[in-house]
Structures are given as structure tokens and as C-alpha cells.
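Hello,

Our lab assistant flagged a job as stuck in the queue for most of the afternoon. It eventually completed. Since we weren't sure the result was trustworthy after the delay, we are filing this so someone can double-check. Below is the sequence as submitted and the structure that was eventually returned. Let us know if re-running is recommended.
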Amino acid sequence: MAELSPQENNIQENDFAYQQIIHLLNSKNINYKLTTHKPTKTSQESAEVRGATIASGAKAMLIKESKNQIFCLLVMSAAKKLSWKLAKQIINSKKCGMASEIDVYEITKCLPGAVPPFGSIFKIQTYMDNSLIQQGDIINFNCGLRTKSIQMQIQDYLKVENSQICDFTEE
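-- returned structure --
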């Protein structure tokens, strides 16, 4: 039987992640720019409404390790593609895949496309690809809602999110 999408289950956007991120950044005195915009679902749409490069987008992908049913968050430049071969090595798994839309909502309380690059607020490990550091000093990301984005310094992100930095993307 096919799994119903969040919309088919009448799941609405929830501001849990947004509130957690704002609290985290404010409590650590981190400078950031918050922007409200039309809803976006893709990295390309988000870059366009932000007036930013797609490379500066911090794309967060919720991954499910199949054997132990463990989730982790892979964060990379939105201009890159995930290398499943490298991702499996990083998370030490022979089989893993994208979390389902229902899993995304159950773990993050976010709709797909709104997941922020902060696995810590969901109590899951965050892995960040070097591509995000290499693209420049500024990152942009949806912060739990499809209608709100944050822009901040990559070094400030690294101060507040305990990401394991590694390589898991390809061109």
C-alpha cells in the first residue's frame, strides 16, 4: 500500500523547527538575517526568492539507514548532488535512502523542502559536506517553514551546529 504524503494526510506546516532555530541562534548571540517570502519547495525556487546563488543554499536531506532504522541529516551546497556511495561510507551503512515524506514530518515536524540544516534540534547526527564551506562565507536555508529563510555566516553555523564535516557530494 502506498504511503500518503503529508498533504494527503492533511498535515500542515508546523513552526517547531523555526522556533527552535531562532531560540538557538539568539541564545548564542549569532547574527542572522531572517526573510519572509512566498512558499518554496526546491533549492532553485529558494535561491530565486532569496536573490542568492544556489551554491549558498544549505540543502538538508533526511537520510534513513535501513538496517538499524536510524536517521541522520546530510547538509550540502544545493548546487551539488549527493553521492550515495560516499554517503553510505560516511554513515557506515550498506543500505540507506531518502526518508519518506511521512518520516520527514514525524522526525522534523517540517514539510519536505523546509528541513533546516540543524539535526541537533531533532536529536539526530548532522553531517556537513565540504562543498558548503568551499562555496563561500554565507549560507542560506529554509528554517523549518517554506516561507522563511535565514542567511548567516558559515563560521557561525559551525559554532552552533556540531556537524561532522566530510565529503559526500559530486558535481
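-- support follow-up --
The delay was a queue issue, not a problem with the job. The result is valid. Helices lie at 16-27, 43-50, 84-90, 101-108, 130-134, 154-160. The chain has one domain: 16-20+30-167.
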